[in-house]
Structure formats: C-alpha cells, structure tokens
Specification:
Elements: H1 4-13, H2 18-32, H3 49-71, H4 77-96, H5 103-137, H6 145-170, H7 174-185, H8 204-221, H9 229-249, H10 255-289, H11 295-326
Length: about 325
C-alpha cells in the first residue's frame, strides 16, 4: 500500500521533468517492495552480519530517497539537512561494512554520494549562515533590523541560487539513476554484499566500531597543542563517522551495555557539535567579511563576523574537554558488547 506522502509527492512531481517523477516513484517503491523493508523482524543473535549491514544501509537509503523527493517540491531547510545527513550516514556505513562489500561498486557509490553531498552542502551552508546571522544579530543592539535586511537578503539570494542549481541537478538523469542503484544495492540478495562471511557475527559490533574509533584517535593525536581549522575539521568528520558506525550496530549491543553505548553516543555527539560550532563560525566569519556590496553591509557583516569569531574561540577552548569525556576507557562498550 502506498503511503499518503508518496502519493502526494507523485502528484507534485507531475509538474516536473521525468527524472523528478522517477525519484517520487522510487519513494513509492520503498513502501511497496518488501525486499527493501529495513525492519521486517527484530534483529536477533541469529541475524547474519550481511543482513545487519543490509538493514543499516537500507535505512540510510530510505531516508535519503524520501528527503530528496521532498527537496524537489519543498524548499524547507529541514529536507536539505535530512538529505545531507542521510547521505553522510550512508557513506559512513559503506566504509564501516566495507569487508562485506564489492569494493569497486562501493567506491563508485561513495563517489556519487560525495558529489550529491557537495551540492546539498551548498544550500545547507547558506541555511546555517542565515540562521546564525539572525540569531547573532540579536546580540548587537546598535544594528537595527533594517540594517540587517541587506545582509540577510544577500545570503538568501545565494541560497536561492544554490537551491535552483541543486534541483536542476536532481532533474538530471544521473541522480534518479543513483537512487535506483542504491535501492537495488540494499534489496534482499543485494548485489553489493558479496562477502557475507567476511565479518563474524560474534565480533561484528567491535569490528564495525573499532576502525573508525582508531581513526578518530589518530586524528585527535595529530592535532597537537595548536590545531589548525583543517585538523579540527578532520576530527569532526571522523567523530561523525564513528557515531554513524555505533548507530548502525546499536541493536546488537547487549542489554547490560546499552546504557553505556547511549552515554558514549551522547558524548560523541557533543564533541561533534562543539567542533561543528567551531567550523561553522570560522567559515562563516570568512564569508561575512567578504560581503562588501555597501559600507553598511560591510559594517553589519563585520560586527556579526566578530561574534562568530567569539563563538569559534569558545568552541576551540572546550573541544578538548568534550574529547576527554567521550574517550573515557569505561565507555568503550564495543570491546565487550
């Protein structure tokens, strides 16, 4: 049975190019085809590693397809965010379950998802910038609402351009084809999972989490006492990939370790958010200072950029504490999960 949401998207897509209808049709397929269902039965100790991987990947694909179907008919920033997050989670899970997968096929999907993420990021970055400008400007009593309008208008224009470019790309046959390939890759008898015995079911939790965790540790160690923005950005990416890996195998964690796993996830998320605040503030400060259409715009942009710099300084001063809390040895539940 088709979901009401899928039927609405199909109707709205009628006014778009055939490629858009294909994306709406894929969204319907996720509701109709039991082969793509991600949670037909609970995961049990008897569930194979290959099936755990398939379900984790399928959940990400479902989120991505449904978010992109809505991006085409709704400019709301939340759908951009959902699509970008789903794509990132999917790429992380392709890496986490790599031993099970066809290496060449997984690499091709990753490259295509990276390109999609870049296009989504162009819109999402503008959404975040506009939101931050409006929030930070409230802390500037000398900057009136009318003074802020010009700066926000420039950012909205950039956002509209990025969104138009994104929707144009999504109407190109390449993206519906990507989604069709992804759905095919996570159906039952997945052609992507070619080495189903490569990861032991008994040690799957540790196998999936240990690699991204070690990479995160190395990234932190490389930062030294005076890390660059690029180094901290790398830590943030690896923290996010580690979080996605934990979420992918969370249903397999023993009940006795479940609370520890959730505590670890919360602290890892805190680290990621702290580094995200730093990265956003640094990049947005640079973008704001480049807005020079008028003296007033330069003044307002400079004032907001100064506030962004303070946000960056605060995040820079606190990320080590967030890392220390996330990296406590007693939280490494996967080594006895």
């Amino acid at each position: 049975m088709k979901s009401p949401g899928g039927q609405r998207l199909r109707s709205q897509a009628d006014c778009f190019a055939p490629s858009c209808k294909r994306i709406a049709a894929i969204d319907d397929l996720l509701d109709d085809d039991p082969g793509t269902e991600t949670a037909l039965t609970p995961i049990t100790p008897q569930t194979s590693s290959a099936e755990v991987a398939r379900r984790a990947l399928a959940a990400c694909v479902a989120r991505l397809v449904r978010a992109l179907a809505r991006v085409l008919v709704d400019e709301d920033a939340e759908w951009i965010h959902q699509a970008r997050s789903a794509g990132r989670a999917l790429r992380a899970n392709l890496a986490a379950f790599a031993p099970l997968l066809d290496r060449e096929e997984a690499a091709q999907l990753d490259a295509r998802l990276r390109a999609l993420g870049h296009s989504l990021g162009g819109v999402r970055d503008n959404d975040v910038l506009i939101e931050h400008i409006i929030v930070l400007a409230q802390r500037l009593p000398d900057v009136g609402e009318s003074s802020l309008d010009g700066l926000v208008a420039q950012c909205r224009a950039a956002r509209e351009y990025s969104y138009a470019k994104l929707t144009s790309e999504l109407q190109n046959d390449a993206y519906p084809q990507l989604l069709e390939d992804l759905v095919r890759a996570v159906c039952r008898d997945s052609p992507l999972i070619v080495y189903p015995q490569a990861l032991s079911r008994e040690t799957l939790v540790r196998s999936v989490i240990e690699r991204p965790w070690r990479r995160l540790e190395r990234a932190v160690d490389s930062c030294g006492d005076d890390p660059t923005p690029a180094q901290l950005h790398a830590v943030r990416i690896k923290a996010k990939r580690c979080r996605y890996a934990v979420e992918a195998v969370a249903p397999l964690v023993r009940a006795s370790r479940a609370d520890t796993a959730q505590q670890f996830l919360r602290r890892l998320t805190r680290l990621q958010d702290t580094l995200g605040s730093f990265q956003d503030a640094v990049s947005e400060s640079e973008r704001l200072r480049a807005l020079t259409s008028s003296k007033l715009d330069r003044f307002v942009a400079g004032e907001v950029a100064e506030l962004e710099a303070r946000v960056a300084a605060k995040a820079l001063a606190s990320w080590r504490k967030a890392w220390k809390r996330a990296s406590r040895r007693e939280l490494r539940f996967w080594r006895s999960a």
